[in-house]
Amino acid sequence: xxxxxxxxxxxxxxxxxxxDAEIAAALEGLGPSSGAVRNSIxxxxxxxxxxxxxxxxxxxVHGAETGTLAPALPLAAVHVLWWTSAxxxxxxxxxxxxxxxxxxxxxxxLLASLLGGQALPIRIVQAQPVPDAVRNALTGEIVxxxxxxxxxxxxxxxxxxxxxxxxxxxxxxxGKSGVPFGMITAMAAILSGAATERTERWREFGxxxxxxxxxxxxxxxxxSGRDEDLRNGTTTYxxxxxxxxxxxxxxxxxxxxxxxAGDSEPAxxxxxxxxxxxxxxxxxxxxxxxFRDDTHRVLDELGGDETHLPALRQLVDQAxxxxxx
Length: 325
Description:
The chain is mainly α.
């Protein structure tokens, strides 16, 4: 591949069979006595497929550091497993437990998500032919990443819209998305042999990208018509912008609508209109551009193999697009 024709989508088309093979090998490695575990995790993976090819992220970071992609394929498998688990658990936390994989009950899917998001990724990194220090560092990233991500989710579940500021929402997004993306980019840097300082800069890039990706998801939820954030009363960055950009009377109405939106279509429609008001969207777009520029700045300062950096820049630009109009 060369930098003129190499997109992250093309990369994903090429490597997705290899990532699937890594996951299949990890499941097969559980042994003949773990058939139920294999079947339940496979069912969860089929049910909760990643919509966007973000599994290429650790490959690109490793490529930027070393010029090679293939050694990071196991980390791409870890990334898929981790997010498959996280997305299913997030659905359960939001009250979407009825959407269980075919052939699995809710409890079975829950157990599969716990194993698939933690134990199986640890088995994958423990099986890698790398020095013990690298293996232990990769394992530590998974353990610590899970703890920090749960902390972010718990804070999000307990959020109070009345005091929600954009900065507070970004802090929550750090835990929900920034930590997991920072975890996988740091793991790719560790595997590449990068020094500690560069590894932490790659973590900073992953964290910044994760916040951008959460903002992308927030937009997509409204554009798709699913309105899950409105139904769940989620305090999104757009909601925080609406609270800041409106006078006290309208802010009180937004808070009232947020409470009612879960059960009321009219409340959701009115809240949606307030979130999509021109002044709110202008503020959101301005802040989104600042987040994008900061993420590009970190990536530019990191530098690396220019064969692989353009695809990382493409990922940043897609995540940072302004799609609400």
